[in-house]
Fold these 4 entries.
Entry 1:
Amino acid sequence: MAQVDQDHGPRPRLVAWETTRACNLACVHCRAEAQYDPAPGQLTHEEGIRLLDEIASFASPIVILTGGEPLLRPDIFEVAAYGVAKGLRMVMSPCGTSLTEEIVQKIKTSGISRLSISLDGSSPEVHDTFRGTRGAFEATIKGMGYCREAGVSFQVNTTVTKRNVDDLPAILETVLRVGAAAWHPFMLVPTGRGKAIKDEEVTPGQYESVLRWLERVSREHDILIKPTCAPHYVRILAQARAKERKGNATEDEQPADAPLPAQRSGHHSAQGLHSISKGCMAGDGFCFVSHVGEVFGCGFLPILAGNIREKSFPEIYSESPVFRTLRDYSKLEGKCGRCEFAAKCGGCRARALAETGNFLSEEPYCVYQPRRAT
């Protein structure tokens, strides 16, 4: 649930700011449909600083500097350092291909505390095709090495599709080898360029099986494994915990179209609900600020809550009717509305919108049948 106090109401835990839509890659799934040159009208330096001031005026969230490629914004290190000085935890989501020794040192000096770097395959054949750029895999691995040598913490993000679902165990091995602090597998949401590869979404059964596999391997490694755009994972963690309490290790029956990836060996390090407390956080702990100041529940959910050029960020976050609706789980429809995990999972509101045109409809990729009566 969103953090709340009686003076300001709900407060965000994470804010993603799309600092620019400029990018040097052409990823097949890009939400922003980014191009090399900056899009017209992106927030100015002064507007970006005011945004950070307004965020810090009522909350202390993690601020994710994203894009496009945030490193293509000329003032990005000045912006990051300003946010750190305001007491915000500043993190960045750069394209791994842009990381050089010099850039990594600037990142470290600015006070950015973590990077998230995308890796969508364990080999160039998979990753480079996904990223639309030959040589992207080797450049990204090299960039991670620069981070490791400089002591800059980084996590690896992986967008899961049919083209790499069988590669997930090998991707995990790569993530462990490069020294990442965390692995965040993202379940594809078909927005932006992602609409063109909608047929590459894994099936609902595969989705469930991948999450169950991730829960199992998370127990075998010290690295934090945190699926994203996968709210069902909270339910799967709760089910696994309940089975442990009952001493019952039997898996629930899986759909026929859902082969599990092969398990990899390793040592046990259980991770549970303490590290992943809520499923869909759109408008309820998380929000996204676009390159032109639009505020959305998340970058995949194009339902406008307001614009910081017209209203203050605290006013939008606390009072937007869109966000108020997203925080009210009684408004969820279909089986999400009667599910006993509704307040913890919530279903992916962006996927519901993409599939049905209604962001309150039931999560279309969830195979779970609620126990709660209609």
Entry 2:
Amino acid sequence: MKRALSLAAKGKGRTSPNPMVGAVIVKHGRIVGEAWHRKPGEPHAEIHALHQAGPRARGGVLYVTLEPCCHTNKRTPPCVPLLKQSGLARVCVAMIDPNPQVNGRGIHALKQAHLQVSVGVLEQEARHLNEVYGYWITTGRPLVTLKGAMTLDGKIATATGESRWITGERARQDAHRLRSQVDAILVGVGTVVADDPEMSARGKKATAGQRVGRQPVRVVLDSRLRIPLKSKILQWVGEQPTILCTTIQAPPKKIELLRARGIQVWVVPVQSGKVSLKACLSRLGKEGLTSVLLEGGSTVNASALQQGMVNRVRLYLAPALLGGRDAKGLIGGLSPKKLDQAWPLADVQLKKLGNDWLVTGTIEPGRIGRT
């Protein structure tokens, strides 16, 4: 199963909205077939492994990181019928698929076909691997990671808005690698107006590198459509789509103009005079986007945290102190009156990246959001 999990991980950033899945077929102690799910629309890992094994699969054991599918309303045929015909003696599954269309039905069908089935081998590792998929399939919203680059005292920009570059090249390369693995990047229009970002995944020299690999969808919260028409994110929409989430406060003529240029403009509900972040994320989830990298400024970061829309944090810390009450901090808004109103982090990890440090963590369950 460890081999199957390592194979599944090869699909990171490539399989969305499908999960990452690895499969290994063993007979007489030897691997006779193995594969991983490469991208949506292609046969699943189990099918590739069966094809590789051929007749050697008969009497063997299939180790698979996720319950084989049994539903038909998708682009590829279900795996269970082929597994039933394969002559396998046993199927070992790491975790049940949380998709309501599967959720134990695949395992039941295999047992009905008189295959031996065991479930739960390295289950926690499998759940961690497909955390994004699991969150999306059960909530309908993409999993959100708040990402920021800041000084040790939590400043993301000077009082004049200067922020390039707080961290060094290694940290920026890591951020671009992360961008290539998520489905979308989300910012507020204030960030677009101030920085005119490209919001793309670029190569080794991130400051001036070429766009490389899979590009995330660009999403902007812009309640009144203040976005300048010359903004970089309104370019290259054929290879990297841009979605503007706005409200009924936006000028209808500008909506029409942007849509004519190939920009997706979504009119979503208003919350406190601004775009409802929850409505935006729910719409992204319906469109099959399972992961979002939040790269907003302090105002958007604060709003996302307060609404309970942040699941993970990924913070790049530069060994510098900026100071000043007028410098911009990672999280805006008003400070809570009590320490127990802070957002606790779990699973915190620290990693050195050149001269900088990367801190990652998750918002503790039950403490997502506050009033």
Entry 3:
Amino acid sequence: MCLTCHQREINRQNSLNKNAQGIVRIGLTRYHVFMKTIYSRIGKRFFDMAIVVPALVILSPLLFCIAVLVRMQLGSPVLFRQVRPGLRGQPFTICKFRTMTEERDAQGRLLPDKERLTRFGRILRAASIDELPELFNVFKGNMSLVGPRPLRMEYLPLYSSEQARRHEVRPGITGWAQVNGRNATDWPMRLFQDVWYVDNHNFRLDMKILVLTVLKVFRREGISAEGHATMPPFKGER
């Protein structure tokens, strides 16, 4: 074979190899998209129920004891209920153990959160025990174990179109933002992390977030922003 013909054959083989590698990459991309879709639609809910059902059974004595303590410390009602936006922004009622009093000023308005948060409530929040009733929200399908935290309904019109994508998945008891700063991060970063989770969530990431959440709870990191009981209100894009 002449040198020129030999070089042409090498170029042809290289071209075929590049095309084959491109097809493999496309195939892997489609496979990953397919697996993510299956996990989002079926696997994630199965994963939630596989953990929540036994957890509710095992934790029922603890839930009862905490409910009694809240009743003794703060009175009735034991649970804090509030309407929050869920999947696709649809409203649902979230449940937590109460950590604040109902103290009001002379005009009948509730005092700031920082002033109403009790010592007992701080203990519940520091250990994230106040979040345990949200397991019932997961059981009902309003929430997931892992996902962007459900925020306030009044924030919905304040999000940018990109930030609003955080509602493309069910909200979670914990999430990527919670293990990367929690309430100690600012709003733009927190919402960015929520959208990042929407685009990248999978079984391995959810497991990682759950493990990191346990570590964060023990270390009591990022419980509140400086000068606030939790975080300052979201004011929208500046």
Entry 4:
Amino acid sequence: MGLRGFERRLEQLVEGTFAKAFRSGLQPVEVGRKVVRAIDDGRTMGLRGTMAPNDITVHLGPADFARFEGFGDALVVELGDAVRQHARDEGYRFAGPVAVRLAEDDHLGPGRTRVDAVVVAAAGAHLGALVLPDGRRHQLGDGVTTLGRVPTCTITCTDPQVSRVHAEIRPDLDGYEVVDMGSTNGTLVNGNAISAHALNDGDVIQLGNTIIRFEAS
């Protein structure tokens, strides 16, 4: 599912501006497939399940690195999303935030690529992220994250349907929970109104008209 979605999005991204650059040679979709294979090859069994690499470096030869340059930021975002979705599909866990980067390697010729994927543990005891409506990720830690309209909230929402201090994301024994703070319009998780809810990977939190996705990675 993750790789298929990744391939569909890349097809859209390489149209227009990038179409000429990717008529031949190394294709972004090939890079995506190699990254997913590296995740599978690098997985290990941990105390809490299968741990997958979360720090990924894609090495490209000078010619391909130059071709990918104008597309690099978008590709890195898509690769990160593909890795997270593949981990959800396969039931993998991460020890730290997912990081993907492109690197130039003078030893690689055109069309050649190498992927290094390793497990890098986060410093804190808790690990998770909120994907905001504009696509940005807010990394969660061991502290409380507040969501609302006032500037003092950790995440400020401009949505008028969101209360001044609408909800909190709190670490618990085995992850995070979202707690409604007596908001006017309530807090929904996956379409259901909640007062407090233990979050699972992929849960959708709705505050007013604002949609935020929780990632346990």
